[in-house]
Amino acid sequence: MAVQSRDAAIVGIYEYPRRRAPGVSVLQIKAECAARALEDAGLSWKDVDGLYDAQDGPGMAGLSLAEYFGFKPNVIDTTAVGGSSYEFHASHALRDIQRGKVKVALLTYGSTAASDARRIGTGGGMGGWGAPSPLSNMTDPWGMTLISNYAMVAHRHMYQYGTTSEQLARIAVVTRAHAMRNPEAVQAMKDLEFENVREITVEDVLSSRMIADPLHLLDCCMISDGGGAVVIASRDVVRDTRQKPVWIIGAGEATKYVENDGDITVSAAAQSGPLAFGEAGVRPEEIDVAMIYDSFTITVLVCLEDLGFCKKGEGGQFVSEDRLHFQAKLKPALNTDGGGLSSNHPGMRGIFLLIEATRQLRGQSTSQVPDAKLAVAHGNGGQLGGNHTGGTIILARD
Amino acid sequence: MPAPRPQPRFPEPDTQPFWEATKEHRLTYQTCRSCTKVVFYPRAHCPHCGSRDLEWHDSKGLGTVYTYSVVRLNRHPAFAELGPYAVAYVDLDEGFRMLTNIVGVADPVKDVHIGMRVKVRWEDQESGISLPMFEPA
Questions:
Q1: Out of A19, A83, A214, B59, which residue is the most buried by the measure of CB atoms under 10 Å away?
Q2: For the segment A256-271, what is each residue's pLDDT rounded down to a tens digit?
Q3: Which of B67, B95, B125 is the closest to A260 by Cβ?
Q4: Best CA proximity match to A105, nearest among A276, A234, A239
Q5: Consecutive H or E run containing A340
Q6: Out of B8, B70, B115, whose CB is closest to A137?
């Protein structure tokens, strides 16, 4: 086994508890989460020397945020690649800490997507805004919603591998079971007026209304308000922090897009996964808990395959075995906070993957896997069946 | 009357020749003179090798459905009242993949399949361009 680096660790986390936050701004959510994550770490506002931001606020991201927060960081990174941005930020923070440029890195996220009534999945962002691009000009006229984009991946996966809607539904069933154990997720579903705030069955998923064939309502994530923050510190800072460190031992980044002879069932995770696992010197079958971006059930299935948890095309079988639930016999447990499907999805969920993976490795999850040692957080940004990014982070406790 | 569909917007020099050709109901694509590969969507450079020596061609407009979805819910005013409609990636016989709609079927939920053969059908737009859609061949 390769020698795992112990150069940078997640030492502070905070997830904004409200999923409907009218009257609060993105910047206010980010600042509150920053303060509370630093408090969790036992660090102070003035300790931050690296600022990582996915351009979710107003103005010129890095500059505006530094000024609003009141920071003069030595490193500013405004990588914005969709929902996986925070896995990219964690990767960059590790690199910057290893180079000695940063000691305390701060990642923040805020969104008021629910209060703004943004129709993210169903046509709200379609056409006509911003400068035209070649891609927008070749996409806008045909009415491809974001959900139908993911649905096209699901259809092709079913065609190539015989994957079924029942198999996809199992992912939604497990994440809902986890959500029902998480008081913030339960409150989120109430606040967002879910029809039934209870555990669900495969049949519930299949009988929920079709949004874009073959994806049903319960195959789709919620749209919430929300936010969060993560503090990543260098080894010498870690000695003085309050919580047990959660080390970043591997990182991988990748992009994928439509190609004339491409396979739409393969995601960017097929590139970022091996990079991260290779750097960490661990294998997927060793992973105890997997936080995988569940924008839709198909996203999880495809990413599990591409990360190497099973062979390509065998994801349907893999999720049908006795695993994913936190008390299941087989590894890994999946999205133990309830995921984007049933707990929190304000548009860019990647930061919550890092947060829940950290809770698991600290022993603080509401669906705690006993003695969890190794976690993966995999973010998928953009659109799975179009251009997208994959960011994979492998985490380990001492 | 539903609102008009989102239209390609100009100036956008990469895709402008493609959309100009649709006015004559020509479906066009490019190949690279340097590495011979097919280039789509249209660009000024080859994404395979970086060459700027590209050549335009007319497609015969015949292809195969690579994948599709039937949209049941779209809140955009151009699509909100349309009823279920099929979006698809179609692999053209010349070797390029494009996003489009599958039309000319009684029920898109039942009558569209991966692997089905399709041919181009032009839908003229008030803006002057024409949208290449596909129907069963």
A1: A83
A2: 999 999 999 999 999 9
A3: B95
A4: A234
A5: helix A339-342
A6: B8
pLDDT by residue (tens digit) across B11-66? 999 999 999 999 999 999 999 999 999 999 999 999 999 999 999 999 999 999 99
* Residue in chain A nearest B29 by alpha carbon: A260
> Which pTM was predicted?
0.97
Q: DSSP per residue over A162-215, as a string?
A: ---HHHHHHHHHHHHHHHTT-HHHHHHHHHTT-S--S---HHHHHHSPEEETTE
Sort out which chain B residues have CB atoms less than 8 A from A152's CB and list them: 67-69, 87-89
Tell me the β-bridge partners of B86: B70, B102
Q: How far is CA A335 from CA A2, A290, A313, B93, in A?
A: 28, 6, 21, 42
Residue numbers of B between 87 and 126 with CB closer than 8 Å to A: 87-89, 91, 95-101, 109, 114-115, 125
Rg (CA), chain B: 16
Tokens of B14: 């990469």
The complex's ipTM?
Answer: 0.98
Whether omega for the bond prior to residue B108 falls within 30 degrees of 0, making it cis, is no
> B43 touching A, CB under 8 A?
yes
Q: Cite the DSSP H helix spans in A183-320.
A: 183-191, 202-207, 235-238, 269-280, 297-307, 315-320
CA distance A383 to A345: 15
Residue A183: CB atoms within 10 Å: 11
Nearest to A390 by CA among A288, A308, A307: A307
How far the first Cα of chain A sits from its last, in Å, is 16
With CB atoms and an 8 Å threshold, state whether B19 touches A137.
yes
Pseudo-torsion of CA B65, A301, A292, A321, nearest 10°?
A: 170
The gap between the terminal CA atoms of chain B, to the nearest Å, is 30
Q: Is the dihedral of CA A246, A392, A212, A19 positive or negative?
A: positive
User: How far apart (Å, rounded) are the C-alpha atoms in residues A18 and A357?
Assistant: 20
Longest dimension (CA), chain A: 56
